[in-house]
Task: inverse folding
């Protein structure tokens, strides 16, 4: 059977793949988008609690800074498709947006399905061909019928020859959505280095029995730190949610990559500053003042003025002080232990909930082997990458979607030969 000939093949119809495909097709490049699932954008539909956090209310510099040192890789992609250009892209497709207090930008409808519908509509108008339920088994470099270098792909349906190729296969997070790490194998077989993938933006687990008593309790403003002995590995100030397995919410998710990447996560400790606005000395002053005015009150009642009652009892237990004790009965040393417990409530960690519950993947194709100004491989001409398949993961809040939109846009622009 004669192989199908394509100018450009994009593998993976997620956030980056959809944008890369319609961008290339709009520039006049004959583009085939292959997706092994029965529908495109499965992970888009799942994201943000089915609301899809499109991006963050910041500028390009804010996106870059949020990633830390690896963020430098995003300068060119963001210059190609900025935060504001991304918002304009969706609003032009009828997806009005809104900014929440955290800076997260969502569709005004709170429906991820509207985001996906907009992307698919633009893809259809672009003239790109979307092939669903067609996975890729094998990719190899080949000499095309024209005599030019290109790629030969074996799919579940046929053989395809392509002059250029964009890998947008995603990582390994939420494997139920189809992101099972195929792109890593393809890239490795083509000569690329893969930084070992690990879960990121994933809930943390613990064996601390008192966490069960707090399941469902949300703390809107805490600082969560991960420590190895006295060494600080990561810290994040945000909201935190207790669950039956441990900790979730933005603070926990944002520090999780250091836990999943640690060879012995059970040696790590999570430390919660329950009152990050207060210094330990000011808490001691508060306790002294309360002793004058409310010395006969039970400690649990006094501490519950600042934190939830159930948590107050746990903090007192952590400090070795009975909850029913009267405030006036506390010694100076006990007040110091209580203030310290409010600032440094510790619990042992055991790990994370793994890829099944991870929002993104840390690790992936080594950025050193990718030209950030074009998204093209430095090792294989005509091979491009975009999205989560790269070793590039950001914090919660729309940063990872922005990286996907922007890297996809740039890859599609350059792969179309119009950049």
Result:
């Amino acid at each position: 059977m004669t192989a199908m000939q394509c100018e450009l093949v994009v593998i993976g119809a997620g956030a980056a793949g959809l944008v890369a495909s319609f961008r290339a097709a709009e520039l006049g490049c004959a583009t085939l988008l292959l997706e092994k699932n029965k529908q495109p954008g499965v992970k888009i539909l799942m994201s943000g609690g089915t609301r899809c956090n499109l991006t963050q209310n910041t500028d390009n510099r804010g996106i870059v800074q949020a990633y830390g040192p690896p963020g430098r890789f995003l300068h060119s992609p963001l210059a190609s498709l900025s935060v504001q250009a991304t918002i304009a892209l969706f609003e032009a497709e009828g997806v009005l947006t809104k900014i929440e207090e955290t800076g997260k930008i969502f569709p005004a409808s709170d429906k991820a399905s509207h985001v996906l519908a907009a992307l698919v509509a633009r893809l259809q108008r672009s003239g790109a061909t979307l092939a669903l339920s067609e996975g890729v088994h094998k990719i190899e470099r080949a000499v095309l019928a024209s005599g030019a270098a290109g790629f030969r792909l074996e799919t579940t349906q046929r053989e395809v020859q392509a002059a250029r190729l964009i890998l947008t296969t995603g990582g390994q997070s939420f494997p139920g959505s189809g992101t099972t790490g195929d792109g890593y194998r393809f890239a490795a077989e083509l000569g690329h280095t893969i930084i070992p993938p690990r879960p990121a933006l994933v809930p943390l687990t613990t064996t601390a029995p008192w966490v069960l008593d707090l399941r469902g309790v949300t703390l809107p403003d805490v600082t969560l730190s991960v420590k190895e002995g006295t060494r600080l590995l990561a810290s994040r100030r945000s909201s935190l949610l207790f669950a039956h397995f441990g900790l979730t919410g933005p603070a926990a998710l944002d520090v999780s990559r250091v836990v999943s990447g640690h060879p012995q996560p059970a040696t790590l400790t999570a430390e919660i500053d329950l009152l990050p606005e207060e210094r330990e000395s000011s808490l001691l002053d508060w306790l002294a003042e309360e002793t004058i005015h409310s010395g006969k009150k039970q400690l649990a009642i006094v501490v519950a003025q600042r934190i939830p009652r159930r948590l107050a009892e746990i903090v007192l237990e952590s400090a070795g002080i009975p909850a029913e004790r009267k405030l006036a009965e506390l010694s100076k040393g006990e007040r110091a232990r209580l203030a310290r417990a409010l600032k440094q409530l510790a619990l042992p960690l055991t790990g994370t909930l793994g890829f099944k519950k991870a929002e993104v993947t840390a690790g992936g194709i080594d950025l050193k082997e990718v030209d950030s100004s074009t998204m093209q491989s430095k090792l294989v001409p005509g091979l491009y990458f975009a999205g989560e398949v790269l070793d590039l993961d950001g914090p919660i809040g729309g940063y990872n979607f922005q990286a996907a939109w922007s890297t996809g846009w740039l890859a599609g622009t350059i792969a179309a030969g119009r950049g």
Notes: The longest helix spans residues 399-415. The chain has 14 helices and 21 strands. The radius of gyration is 25 Å.
